[in-house]
Structure formats: structure tokens, C-alpha cells
Amino acid sequence: MPTARRRPQPIDPRGPRFNQAVLCVSLLAAFVYDLWLVVPLFAAVLLLGAAFGPKFGPVLRFYAVVIKPRLQAPAHLEDPRPPRFAAAIGVVFLASATAAFVADLSALGWILALVVAALAGLAAATGICIGCEAWLLIAKRRNVELVA
Asked: pTM surpassing 0.90?
């Protein structure tokens, strides 16, 4: 007998955008100052949010506890799965970048990290999240019902 899947709770879309902005600025600063250890740190930050949800992602948690209470209610809520998928892709890229740094392939490490920074910056500034759009395409092909 198949088990019913629990529908995910919709989220405030400003949380992931704040997370993306912090990620972008942090990775760009790390590149400018050649602080490659920031890359695995943010891989872990993204991993916590992607794997366990916004309550466990430090930046997402900061947004929920400190920033969100000072704002008006969001105009709309969104499905949490697309940004979690995008974060998982970011984890793969940042973990690969970390492996490149450890292997003394700094140029490759920075290329991978800066791809994440660029995509996070795009999402934070415009709301266009390439990883989220990829999830939506996959979900549409698989007839996954969206929430929100």
C-alpha cells in the first residue's frame, strides 16, 4: 500500500533570496582576499539548509529569527523544494571547489565557487534562480504538484 506523501509547507521567498545574497557576497569577498576556506564553510551552510530545511541553515535561520519579524508578510509564498534543489546543486559545486583547492588546483576551485556566486547573485538580485527553474522543469515532466 503506497504511503501518502506529506506536502511541504510553503515558505517566504525572501528567505532564500537573503541566503543567496549572503552567499554571493561571501564568496566574492573570499575570492578577493583569497580565503578559500570560506568555500567549504558555505558548502556546509548550504548542505544544512538543503538537507534539513530552513530551520537548520544558519543564514536562513538568521533571516527567520532576526529579519522576517521586522517585515510585512510576504506577498506570496512558494514551494520550498526548488530552492532546496538549487542549494543542493550549490553544495555539489562548492564541494568540488573544495576538492580542487585541496588538490592545489586553485584556479578550478575559484571557477567553481564563482559560478555559484554568480548564480546566487543573479537569484538574489532578480529572483531568477536557475537551479529552481531546473527543479520546476523536472517536476513538470514528472507531474509533481506544487505547493503555495
From this structure: yes
